[in-house]
Amino acid sequence: MKLLLISPGWPKGRLWGELGFKFPSLSLAAIAAATPEGWDIFLGDENLAPLDFSADADLVGITAMTPQAPRAYEIAAAFRSRGIPVVMGGFHASNLPEEALEHVDAVVVGEGEPVWPLLVADLEEGKLKRSYRGASRAGLSGLPRARREIFTGDRYLLTNTIQTTRGCPHDCEFCSVTTFFGRRYRERPIPEVLGELAEMRKDGSFVFFVDDNLVGNRSYALELFRGMRGMGFKWLSHAPIDLGADAELLQSAGEAGCVGMFVGFESLSQKTLAAIGKRTNQAARYLEQARAFRDHGIGILGSFVLGCDGDTPAVFEQISGFCESARLEAAIFPILTPYPGTRVRQRLEADGRIVSNEWRDYDMGHVTYRPVGMSGRELQEGHDRLNRSFYSFPSMFRRIFRWHRSLQVFAPMNLGFRAALGRVEGGAR
């Protein structure tokens, strides 16, 4: 029996579709690990190479985020036309299972590992159901190690990706993580994590922890970081900006090899932060907390959500100035996007402010709702202008071209974002 796991391509001409550095889908490697013995497993990642639609398969599994959904449906149609059953999972299908079922044979709602063996058994018996939903959040003890060998030979920036926790105690209204993983913070046993890391070390020293908040449980994070000392890793993950106020935890992360963190600043306005549910952020302390990251050798990839209800056209210049003052090593500037399943979508739908359900535009780079502090056009143009300014050579020189141990990661990242933005603008002409 043959299983083909597919990651659909991001829309070309968009930032995420033009980035030269690619990361593999850890969720597909996890599904591969949960697949019963007797199946040959193959990967098709359209972000790296065109798919082979003539491939021999007994089952096709697709994971997709919302902007990838239209392409996922096209891929599903091609394989179903040959009589091959197609299953879809991931954030979009989990939030809109009825829509997905118009295009695929079965949908996995939520975390896939608990129900995937049952789905495969049903398929083998000719009894595939339309929907599979785990009875509860997946326990993280004893999870089979992700089968990263399915990535072998592909042109990824790195294949050492790992997840140690799921869930987030915060409840930001724009975030789909809590909808999918829940607010209860769950951790894998640290001995299991360290054992997996020891195996991964054979494939390289760089690691990306995909956890949405690696330090959500302080004592767990401290134990993990202390266990990683001496393993020789250089790693990146996600953490809140208030990590900068915890000197012990920050130092421990640095000593464990952390060179960079994705940090959601979201807004420079405390009022806006409260409105969107990011209550742990203290905007007045951003500069000192960002400086603490740098002092411990940890660079920051900052994120600022554009188009919140408190934003006016002045916000773009304010964010630009802050990024340079804080000397952020990198940043992204997503336009507020009302993803299915999020509280912000519920609110904007109730207010009649959703102007587009063209899922390809739900890539954080396009306006899909009616903002209140500026026009949609002002928001789009401000977003584009801020990206150009931040990734200009003068800005990059002022922010990052001084020696810092995170430079080895963030210098290529800046150049990669700049090149991708250039291709996006070139294709728009």
The coarse overall form would be: globular
Strand order of the largest sheet: 2-1-3-4-5-6
How many domain units? Answer: 2
Number of continuous helical runs: 17
pLDDT < 50 stretches = none
Average predicted local confidence, pLDDT: 93
Tell me the CATH superfamily of the largest domain.
Answer: Aldolase class I
CATH topology of the largest domain: TIM Barrel
- Summarize the amount of helix as a percent range: 25-40%
Q: Which structural class do you get from the secondary structure elements?
A: alpha/beta
Q: What is the CATH domain class of the largest domain?
A: Alpha Beta
Would you report the number of β strands? 14
Global Rg: 21 Å
End-to-end C-alpha gap:
47 Å
Under the CATH scheme, the architecture of the largest domain is Alpha-Beta Barrel
Largest sheet: 6 strands, parallel
